[in-house]
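Renewal narrative, Specific Aim 1. Our central claim is that a sequence can be written position by position from structural information alone. The example that follows is taken directly from our test logs and has not been curated for this report. It begins with the structure tokens describing the chain, in the order in which they were read.
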């Protein structure tokens, strides 16, 4: 993708907070990229940087040979030791360096990004078709809006309802994309196909594999009919950065680049990845500028296997409905109380355990719903949120009163680690 001529490359000499530093510098209108210290000089030069910033958690004498390779490039170079405590101060130093030593004009703006991205997409795609798997999540939604802005009806979005979506989600996605944006939206209700395959399967990994495989099959069938040479993807910059091994050692990879990894190699698409250089909050800003509603853009992260990993054990339609209803109550009360945007993720879990209780003066023997609310910065660790007791009580009494088959609500107070955020 064409970028501003004034690129600054941050060289990662093992610096945990380098993405945050890169992000802070961008706020001053200076376009930054992050590359590992092992990157060949030629590769760095391809980006035509006007300056280099060497970032490390500690002083870098151990990698002096690599440092010297970059010094020999003859570009202005700044060495920074960045820790959590001095991040803001070091970012200020970096910005001053970019302006004073590298001559940056601070003109990089997301508004310009949209114009550039639209031009790039048009140049890449010409008059051909693009297919895009729309999940209803932030990244694929923003990419859909961006590609649509560029090529309109040449884009077809495929939205697969696998039966594990949250309440009203299929309706919301159809309303936003098919009605408001007037996109070509291929909506596939494959609920029965997924739920039939999942029947009786209680092992979490097997469930995930079934959902993943079925998803690819359904998407591939739909994409084949559309017959598009291009595939749009919601890959974002952290997906790429976290899939680059710091030392050329694949064990150092935080997570593999799941967007590309999932599709079978015989689907020979050319990829359109217009937000692959943006950080998550920049993607959200672009989404807002393109007119996507807050209920899509500011949503909590939601796992690909959806309610499937929040319904512990084998999924059947009756208990899945209990979870969906309970989850909708949790979200509704969270929004009403103003707590939704104060938490990273808050959701309901179906627990396949029956306990004794009382409803309308009669003995009940029904299921348990758990509520989990966590805060996190990167989902690698997570802290339990102390939601107000009154809010939890409201959620619990509504769930017990309104969700048939549930007579008990519990609150999960497990941090990550040792717990994971999702239950499966
Ligand atoms: P865990 O449960 O591993 O979750 O602590 C960490 C974060 O990742 C999300 N998550 C997923 N996201 N596909 C996704 O796209 C998945 O299979 C998946 N599993 C977990 C989870 O919601 C949390 O934000």
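The sequence written for that structure reads:
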């Amino acid at each position: 993708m064409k970028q501003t001529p004034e690129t600054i490359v941050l060289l990662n000499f093992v610096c945990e907070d380098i993405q945050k530093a890169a992000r802070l510098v961008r706020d001053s209108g200076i376009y930054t990229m992050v590359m590992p210290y092992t990157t060949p000089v030629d590769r760095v030069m391809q980006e035509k940087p006007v300056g280099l910033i060497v970032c490390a958690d500690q002083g870098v004498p151990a990698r002096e040979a690599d440092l010297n390779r970059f010094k020999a490039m003859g570009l202005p170079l700044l060495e920074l030791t960045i820790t959590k405590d001095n991040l803001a101060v070091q970012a200020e130093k970096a910005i001053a360096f970019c302006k004073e030593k590298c001559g940056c004009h601070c003109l990089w703006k997301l508004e310009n990004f949209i114009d550039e991205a639209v031009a790039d997409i048009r140049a890449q795609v010409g008059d051909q078709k693009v297919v895009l798997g729309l999940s209803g999540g932030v990244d694929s939604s923003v990419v859909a809006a961006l590609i649509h802005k560029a090529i309109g009806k040449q884009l077809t979005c495929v939205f697969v309802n696998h039966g594990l979506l949250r309440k009203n989600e299929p309706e919301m996605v159809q309303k936003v994309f098919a009605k408001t944006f007037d996109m070509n939206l291929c909506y596939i209700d494959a609920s029965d196909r997924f739920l039939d395959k999942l029947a009786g399967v209680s092992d979490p990994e097997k469930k995930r594999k079934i959902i993943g495989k079925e998803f690819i099959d359904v998407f591939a069938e739909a994409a084949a009919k559309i017959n598009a040479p291009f595939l749009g993807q919601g890959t974002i910059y952290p997906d790429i950065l976290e899939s680059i091994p710091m030392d050329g050692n694949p064990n150092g990879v935080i997570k593999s680049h799941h967007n590309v990894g999932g599709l079978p190699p015989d689907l020979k698409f050319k990829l359109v990845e217009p937000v692959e250089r943006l950080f998550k909050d920049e993607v959200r800003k672009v989404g807002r500028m393109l007119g996507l509603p807050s209920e899509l853009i500011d949503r909590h992260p939601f796992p690909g296997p959806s309610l499937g990993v929040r319904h512990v054990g084998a999924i059947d339609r009756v208990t899945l409905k209990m979870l969906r209803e309970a989850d909708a109550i949790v979200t509704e009360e969270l929004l009403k109380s103003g707590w939704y945007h104060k938490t990273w993720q808050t959701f309901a879990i179906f627990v396949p355990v029956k306990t004794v209780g009382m409803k309308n003066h009669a003995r009940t023997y029904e299921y348990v719903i758990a509520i989990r609310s966590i805060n996190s910065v990167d989902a690698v660790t997570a802290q339990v949120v102390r939601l107000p007791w009154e809010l939890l009580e409201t959620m619990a009494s509504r769930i017990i009163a309104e969700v048939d088959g549930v007579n008990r609500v519990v609150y999960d107070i497990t941090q990550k680690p040792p717990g994971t955020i999702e239950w499966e």
